[in-house]
Amino acid sequence: GKSIIFVNTKAEANELAVSSTLAKDCQVLHGDIIQKQREITLQGFRDGHFNNLIATDVAARGLDIPQIDLIIQCQYPQDTDTYIHRSGRTARAGRSGTCITFLTQREVAQGSLARLEKAVGQPFKRVGIPQPQDLVSVGLEDAKAQLEAVHRDVLPHFKELAQEFLEKDPEEALARALACVCNFTQPVQSRSILSARMGFVTVVIKTAEPFHSTSYVHELIKSHLDLNEHQVRRIADVELCEEPSVAVADVPHDLAKKLLDQPSEFYQPGVEITRAKSLPRLKPVRSFGGGGGGRRW
């Protein structure tokens, strides 16, 4: 399907257009593009010659392109009107569509998402950074389509080597081939869902009683793992959720493993700790001063 990717500046549009993942299937639309080239670009987009249009707001104002499946906003919109203009490029004429907006942890903490939801009268679903398995799953869908599209006449050129691999370990041979097709030939570094920190795991903590502050979450993790103060300070981010008895925390991988490997009977009564597969809705909070990395205790 077609997508429009909105950025704030011409420099950002040009930089994104030369990225290895988009360069072969995108064009740019911004104020430095002459009118004739804009018309050619838009017609090519309509005709399906490329599927991704990277645009600034000024250049995209008033665009009427049917069948846009996805809108991506690379930064938090400057105002509600900008968001409505951008997101309104999809889900037109009775069609469905998706709009994805990137926000920083600080913007969420300052209530930007909540204000935008209130302004447009629509709840948003917040998702964290894709995890390795998410990326692999998407890659496998594409790999299956590519494998099924291979013409039978080219297969004889590969059968001798295929037979050689099959004689060793058929399952591993196919797994290696799929990994190459998906371009996953090296281990994928995982990041936390909450803050995208490398080497951290986001855990979901549920209790029988509501959380009144993030300090209680720190104390709960500290008591379960018998941590000293230095180890407690390694916990990077803690956020309370809209559901009062739920919180999420970014915990270093080694501590998260200890926490999640504990049998449930070792937890305090009414406490449940699991690895986050997706983000629950977070409670908007005010940011106090600069820095702090989201920690407010």
How would you describe this structure to a colleague?
The radius of gyration is 24 Å and the shape is flat. It has helices at 10-17, 35-46, 57-60, 80-87, 105-109, 112-120, 132-149, 156-168, 170-181, 214-225, 229-232, 253-261, and strands spanning 2-6, 26-29, 52-55, 68-73, 98-101, 200-206, 237-240, 246-252, 272-275. It folds into 3 domains: 3-120, P-loop containing nucleotide triphosphate hydrolases (Rossmann fold, 3-Layer(aba) Sandwich); 132-182, no CATH class; 200-275, 2-Layer Sandwich (Alpha-Beta Plaits). Mean pLDDT is 87; it is low at 287-297. The strands form 2 sheets. Strands 2-3-1-4-5 form a 5-stranded parallel β-sheet, sandwiched between helices. It has a 4-stranded antiparallel β-sheet with strand order 7-8-6-9. β4, α4 and β5 form a beta-alpha-beta unit. The chain is an alpha/beta fold and 297 residues long. The two termini are 45 Å apart. The longest helix is centred in the middle third of the chain and has 18 residues, at 132-149. The protein is built from 12 helices and 9 strands.
